[in-house]
Amino acid sequence: MPQEESCGTFVFWGHPGIVCCLPDAKKLASTSREANCEIHAVAAAHFKIVFEQIENHEGGLFGLGRVMIRWLAVAGLVFVSLAAFCQSAAAFDTVVLDPGHGGHDRGASIGYVFEKHLALDTARRVEQLLKKAGLKVIMTRSRDVFIPLPGRAAAGNRYGNAIFVSLHYNYNRGGSGNGVETYYNKSSGYSLAAYIQAYLVQSTRMTNRGVKTAGFHVIRNTTRNPAVLVECGFVSNSTERSRMMTGEFRSKIAEGVAQGIVAYKKANR
Q: Are the C-beta atoms of residues 181 and 139 closer than 8 Å to each other?
């Protein structure tokens, strides 16, 4: 449950699904490798989703030509830019899942709805999906216990050929926050965050708050492997809270996270 940060949000082709959020909007105007890599990684992930939708299109050919032209143009931008600006991520076979909080640390909470329970249940669902996809999964906690932050980061550094994904639910004291967001700290986490965010938005249809940088302990101190922290919705938002209290919706969240991880793996074979 990180504090909210101000950032610049950029949308490709007026489509809310392709979003890049940076701490300083002026970075877009720069030619920095980091800014371009982040923007195009998000675009690449979303283009893959749209292409899959086009393949499964059931509404005939009406409007399909315009959609294909639009996204083929984006594809050219995406893949040329990725080749120019982004490093290829190393192949991996292990996912370290980190359900936030636990034990005496409830995390975000309203009444008897605790972030620690939501995060653990969601992580278990992601775990099962990833195992079905052939990945090895390590859980920093598999029950309601408190794990100190250094211990979580240590788990992220313990395994080679791995990625680290910390799962959380958000909170806003005013109750106005809504949507999902994914954080990274180091360049190695850019693409992973982008893939997870794109598929999470696609699966849940929640507001896309973007891909953002942050210095949260677990992703700052996981230095051996790509590391991200995912905020799966706002406990403080009554509408989102009602949805996340259902197993069906937590399954949609888990599916989005797992699909993003699998797509990221396929892109980095």
A: no
Q: Give the domain range for residue 220.
A: 94-267
- Give tens-digit pLDDT for 61-76: 455 555 554 555 444 4
- Round to whole Å and give the CA distance between 51 and 142: 36
The pLDDT tens digits for 174-193 are 878 999 999 999 999 999 99
In this prediction the pTM is 0.74
Number of Cβ within 10 Å of residue 131's Cβ equals 13
pLDDT tens for residues 124-175? 999 999 999 999 999 999 999 999 999 999 999 999 999 999 999 999 988 7
Burial label for 208, CB within 10 Å (0-12, 13-18, 19+), is buried
| Within-domain flag for 214 | yes
- Residue that terminates a domain, selected from 33, 51, 85: 85
Residue 117: which H helix or E strand, with range?
helix 115-132
**109 shares a domain with 75:** no
Number of domains in the chain: 2
Picking from 70, 75, 83, the residue whose alpha carbon sits closest to that of residue 43 is 75
